[in-house]
Amino acid sequence: MGLWQWIDGWPVYRQLTGDDALGRGSAARSRGTERLSARTERADRVVRSVCPYCAVGCGQKVYVKDEKVIQIEGDPDSPISRGRLCPKGAASKQLVTGPGRISAVLHRPPHGTGWERIPLDRAMDMIADRVVATRRQTWQDTHHGVPVRRTLGIASLGGATLDNEENYLMKKLYTALGAIQIENQARI
Amino acid sequence: MTSDRNRLSGPLADPTADAGYPDTHPPRMGFFTDTSVCIGCKACQVACKEWNLVPAETGELDLLGQSFDNTGALSANNWRHVAFIEQTVTPDRPPVDLGMPAIGPPAGDASDAGDGQVRWLMSSDVCKHCTHAACLDVCPTGSLFRTEFGTVVVQEDICNGCGYCVPACPYGVIDIRPGDGRAFKCTLCYDRLGAGREPACAQACPTDSIQFGPLEELRERADLRVTELHERGVDEARLYGRDPQDGVGGDGAFFLLLDEPEVYGLPPDPVVTTRDLPSMWRHAATAAVGVAVSVALSFLERGALERRKP
Amino acid sequence: MAECHPVGFQWVVEARERGATIIHVDPRFTRTSALADVHVPLRAGTDIAFLGALINHVLSNDKDFREYVVAYTNAPAILREDFADTEDLDGLFSGFDPDSHHYETTSWMYEGARASAAAGDRDRWPASGDEGGPGAADRQHGGGELRETGRAHSYGAGGPALSGKPAMDPTLRHPRCVYQVLKRHFARYTPELVEDVCGVPRELFTRVADAITANSGRERTTALCYSVGWTQHTVGVQYIRTAAILQALLGNIGRPGGGILALRGHASIQGSTDVPTLYDLLPGYIPMPHAHQHQDLDAFVAADAGTTGFWGNMRAYVVSLLKAWWGEAADEENDYRFDWLPRLTGDHGTYRTVLNQLSGECKGYFLVGENPAVGSANSKLQRLGLANLDWLVVRDLRLIESATFWQDGPEIETGELRTEEIPTEVFFLPAAAHTEKDGSFTNTQRLLQWHHAAVEPPGDARSDLWFYHHLGRIIREKLAGSTDPRDRPLLDLTWDYPTSGPLAEPSADAVLAEINGHGQDGQPLSSFTQLRDDGSTSCGVWIYCGVRADGHNRAANRRPRDEQSRVAPDWGWAWPANRRILYNRASADPEGRPWSERKRYVWWDAEQGRWTGEDVPDCEADKPPDYRPPPGARAQDALAGTDPFIMQSDGRAWLFAPAGLADGPLPAHYEPYESPVDNPLYGQQTNPALQAYDHPANRYHPAGSEVYPYAFTTYRLTEHHTAGGMSRTLPYLSELQPEFFCEVSPELAAERGLEHLGWATITTARTAVEARVLVTERIRPLRIRGRTIHQVGLPYHWGPNGLSKGDAANELLSVVLDPNVRIQESKAATCDIQPGRRPRGPALRAHVAAYRRRAGLNEDEGTPPGAGEGQR
C-alpha cells in the first residue's frame, strides 16, 4: 500500500478534502465496507433445487462455496413461487447446515441404555441380516389356504419428503421381499 | 453547494449527495411495506437472519403472548419484526385494540364482544433509514454512515459499542448486541444492493408486502395504492414515514398502515433527535469550560460542523 | 392457506387485488382469515352440512350450470329402483349390514349398468389381528368379523369401473335420475340446518352461497382449496365428494380458475401417492392384488379395470410395471410374474400395523423421514408399538422422538416403560438433505420438479436412494444361490442401477428412466399410450411415462416464467402428459367451443382437426367432439368426443358415485366420532362404516360426554412444519414459535378460569397434555341449538425433543378412521381443559384413569357403556 493510498484511506483526510464534510457518508467508509460484497457473488456454483417443506414446490437456488452450502434462497424464475419463500423455506440453509444434524450411525442394542456409534457398512450388514431373518421367521406362503407370499413381520413408514425415485425403490424392494405394510405420511 | 447541505432536519431532496457522494450516485433505495397484504408469515425475519447471519435467540425461548409475535421488538438480533394486532371491529364503532389480556379473560361483557368481527393486523417493521438519521449524526466513530444508496448502515469493523446511537433513534431500532457489544440493525442488505440484488426480506416476502426499489418510485406506488384502497372503501389506509416534511425528513423505509401508528407500536410523530443539535452546540461552545468529556469528544469528532457554520 | 402455504397464497392475494372474493371457512381465525373478504367460523367436523347446504342452494334455485351438468356429469343417469337414500333410512343408504358395518353396494348402481366385480364383490378377509385368537391384544371393531379392504385410494387416478351404459334422462325430470335423487337427498340441508349443525348464522351462509353462485357459470369460475382440515375425518373422502358435487354442478371442473385444489402439506406427498409407499397401491394407482380373488393377471385386470375409459388399458400398465421390476424373468409364459406380488387380505394400513406391533406380529420397522412418536394420532399407541419391536431403523436428519422413545419417551417418565426392558434394537442412520441428492418431488399440482445435488452429505449421512439400493444389493448378495422359491422375486429383481462417486451413490436419473419406461429397442417412451400388454414395453410408473421422453429429464425443465405462457409448460413436468389442468376438455362446450372467451383454455380447431389451446388437451388430441363410439369399442375409444372425464368408465363427473365408496354413494352429514352434540339430521350419529380400533390404549369418548365437554381441533402454524422434525430443531424457526400453546376464546377462559399465558391441562381418554394458554377473540364460541359450543385450538408441532419443546397434541387423539382411505380423524374430537400444569410421572396415569372412570370408560372394556350407537 502506497503512502497516498494510506492517507486517502484515512477517513478524516477524506472528510476534510472531499464533499462529505460531516463525515457521515463517503468519507466515513471503512476498509470493511470497501471490501464488502454479497457472498452469493463469490459462490463456486449455484444449484437449482426445490423447497423440502410443503407441497407448493417453491424453486430454490443453492449457493455453494468450497463444497459448503453458503446460501439458499428463492428462485425468481419459478412460475410457482417467483423467488419467494416462507419462513420455513427461508430457513432451509439452517435445515441442512444447522445444529443438531447427526452425521454418524447410532445403534442402541436391545435393552440398551445408550447409543453406540457403529460404522455404516456394519449397520447396513446388520440391518440386512435382520430383514432376512425376520422375513424367514414371519413368512406366509398362504393365508387361510390362499397363496399370499408375504411377510407381516416387516413394516415401513416413510415421510413425504422422500423423492419419487426413493419411493420407487422402496416399493420395489419391499414388494420383492413380500413386505406389504408399506406406508407413508400420505395416508396420515 | 446547495443551500440545504449538511442540515440535520427538514426536507432534504438527496441525502446521498449530502453525504458527499458524486452526482452519479445511484438513486436512493428503500422499502415500502404495504401491511394491507401482509400475512404475518415472518419469512422476512428468517430470510434476514439467514442472509445476515444474525444470531437466533434460542437461549431465552419464551412465549410472549402478544398474539403470534414472539419477537417483541426490533433489536440487534432482530432486524425485521412482524407485529400482530388483534382487534374487534363493530360496524358502528372504530376498531378496538384488544391488546393482549394480561391475566384472565378480558374485561367487559363477553357476549357484547361476540358481536364484533375480528380484525388481525400484521406489519413487518424495520429500520426506517431516515433522511435525517440521528443514529448516524451522533456516531462518534463514523461507524454509522450513509451509503451511496442513501441507506444508513453500521460498519461493524469500526463500531466501538459506545451506544450513543441507541437513544438517538426516534424509533428505538438500533441496539447493542449482548455478548458482542457492538450496535446492529438492518443494513437494507447493503452487500446485496452492491451486487444489484434486492434485500433478502423483500425477495422472500410471499405477498409482496415488502417492496424494494428507488424511493421515488415506491412513493408514487404507495400514493396510488392508498388512493386505490380508499376507492375500495378502506378509508383507514394511510402512509407512515412517506412525508419528506415530517420530523425525520421522511423515511427510506415507509409503510402503508390500516390503523394509527401507535397501534403497530410506531411513534406517531417521530422527530430526529439531533434536530436541535446545532443550536445546542452553539450554546455549548459559549460555555465550553466544564463541558463533560464525552461532549468534548463528540465536539472534536464533529468539529467540521462548527467550522462551516456562518 | 396463508398459514400453511404462504407462497401459494400470493396468487390468492393477487386474485383478490383483481377483484376476486376470498371466503375462508375454518373453525379458527387464521392468517388466511385476516386477508379474506369473509371468514366463516364453523364447528369442526361439520363441513358436509355446510357444503351440502350450498348444493341444496344451487339445486333449489336452479343455479347449476345446466348445459355442463347435462353433458358432462351423471346427473341424467337413472338409478335402480331398489336404491334407498339416507332420507328413507334415517341416515343409512340401502345395502347396510349392521353386523359387519359394511355396505353391499349393488343397489347404488345405475339402472342397466353393473360395476365390475371388484367394486360389487369386494375382497373380505379376517383382519390379520384376529388371527391371534381370543387372546389377541386388541379388539377390532366388530370383533372377529370379516373386514373389507380399503380400495378407494386406488381411484386416485380415476374412478372405479362399470360396465354397460346407464339409462339417461337428459331432461333431468325422471324421479330416479341422479339430479332428482340429489335434490331430495340434500333438501333438508338448509341455512337453518347450517345454523344448527355448524353454528354459522344463516345470513353469513347466504352471503357465501350468493358469492359462489354469482361467480360460477359460463363467464366465471370458483375454485375450492382445501387441506387436511377436510380429509382428516371419519368422513374425509365424503368431504371431498361433497365439494366435487358442488363444483360439478357449478361447472367449475376442468376450467381455468376452477377446480378443487388439494393443498398438500409435504414436498412430495403427491409423489408418495403416485409412486406409492402405500400398502394398497402399486405405482400409478394400480391396486395391490388381493388374495384369493385375483388368481392370475387376467382375472385381476378383469376385476379391477373397466373396459371403457383409459383404465381400459390397465393390463398394459400392469405388464409394463412387472417388466420394469422383473425384466427378462417376466414373460407371457409365467404371467409376467404376477404371482410374485404379495397379496393383501384386509387392512394393512399404518394404524393396523401398530396394532400388529403391539401383538408381536410385526417385528421389524423402518421409519424413513417420519416421526409417528409425535406425528401420528394417539402417539402413545405408536410408542408402545415401537417399544415392542425386535428392531427399528430410523432414517432422519436429526434425533427425532421416534428414535429416542426408549430413552426419554413420556412412558419412561410415567413408569409404563423401563428403558432396560424395551427389547427394540434401534439403528439411527443419518439421512441426506434435499441439497445433497438428486431426485424429483411431485408438488401439490402434480408437477414433478427435479432438485440437483449441491454438495455431498456429511459423514455417514446418505440418501434414501443410497440406503435402499445398497440394502437391496446386500440382501441379494446374502441370498445369492438360494433355491428357495420365496427368494426368486428378490434375486430376479432388476437392480443394476449405476453408482458413482466416493459414496457409490446410485443414479437417480437411472431410476427415473426406469419409471419413465422404454420400448423393446431400449428407447425411452414418450407417452403412456405407447404401453403394451404383450411384454414389449417396460414402465415403472405409467402415469409418469413421458417425464423422460427422448431421454431428456423434463422434471428438470426450468424455462424462466417470463419466457413462457402463464401455463408455464416448460417448468417441470406434470403427470399425465404434462397436462396442467385435469379434465380440461370440460373447458369447452360439447361442440368443442370455449364456454366463453373469458374462460377459454382448450378448444377444438376444426380446420386443423385437433384440440388446441394453452394446455395439453386432456383427451386424444384428434378426437372430434362429434365422435361417437361404435358398438363394442374399448378403453378410450368407448368414450364419446363429448366425454371429458376420461378416467371414468362413463366419461362423466359423478355427482352420485354408483361404485367405489365404502360409506355411501352420496355424502351425508355424520358427527365426528367424538362430538359434543347429537346429529340433528339423522338417527345415525356417525359414519356407519367408519373404522374404530378398541384397544386399552385407544379409548373413545361417548358423544355429548360431560366429562370431555369441549371440541378440539389440531392444526399447523406458519412457523413450523408438521410434527416439527424439520422445524423445532432449527433456531430461526424455534424462536418464532417457542413452545406448545392452546388457543381458547375469552368465554371459555372465563368458564374454566384459564389465564392468558398461564398453563392448561387438556385431557382425553388417551392421555393429558399441558400447553401455555393464548386467550384470543380469534377463537369464537358457537351457538348451536341454544347451546354454546366451545372449541380448543391445538397446533400439533411439538414434542419433547428439539429446541422448541412441548407436549404433542397428537397424544390426545384416538385412532378412528375413514373407511375408504383409512385416514385418522385428527380434526375433530372432544376433551376437557383445566387450568394448571399436568400431573407428572405415575400421577399422569392416575389423572387420565380418573377421567375415564368418571366418563364410565371401564379400564378393560373398549366400548363405553351407553355409547350405545349401533355403529360405534
Written description of the protein model:
- The complex is a heterotrimer of chains A (188), B (310) and C (872).
- Chain A has helices at 3-8, 11-17, 31-35, 87-90, 92-97, 120-138, 164-177, and strands at residues 45-50, 59-65, 68-74, 106-108, 116-117, 139-143, 146-158, 179-184.
- Chain A has 188 residues and is of the alpha+beta class.
- Chain A folds into three domains: 3-35, no CATH class; 39-97, ADC-like domains (N-terminal domain of TfIIb), CATH 2.20.25.90; 119-187, no CATH class.
- In chain A, β1 and β2 form a beta hairpin.
- The mean pLDDT of chain A is 93.
- Chain B is globular, with a radius of gyration of 21 Å.
- Chain B is α+β, with helices and mostly antiparallel strands and 310 residues long.
- Chain B is built from eleven helices and eleven strands.
- The relative contact order of chain B is 0.19.
- Chain B folds into two domains: 15-264, Alpha-Beta Plaits; 277-308, no CATH class.
- Helix content of chain B is 25%, strand content 16%.
- With 872 residues, chain C is of the alpha+beta class.
- Helices cover 23% and strands 14% of the residues of chain C.
- Chain C has a six-stranded mixed beta sheet with strand order 26-28-27-33-25-31. Chain C has a three-stranded antiparallel beta sheet with strand order 7-24-32, with no helix packed on it. A three-stranded parallel beta sheet of chain C has the order 14-15-16, with no helix packed on it.
- In chain C, α2 (31-35) links the parallel β1 and β2 (38-40).
- The two termini of chain C are 34 Å apart.
- The chains are: A alpha+beta (188), B alpha+beta (310), C alpha+beta (872).
- Chains in contact: A-B, A-C, B-C.
- At the A-C interface, β1, β2, β3, α4 and α5 of A face α11, α14, β14, α17 and β16 of C.
- β4 (106-108) of chain A pairs antiparallel with β16 (425-430) of chain C, so a sheet runs across the interface.
- Chain C: Pfam families: Molybdopterin (PF00384), Molydop_binding (PF01568).
- Chain C: Its cofactor is [4Fe-4S] cluster.
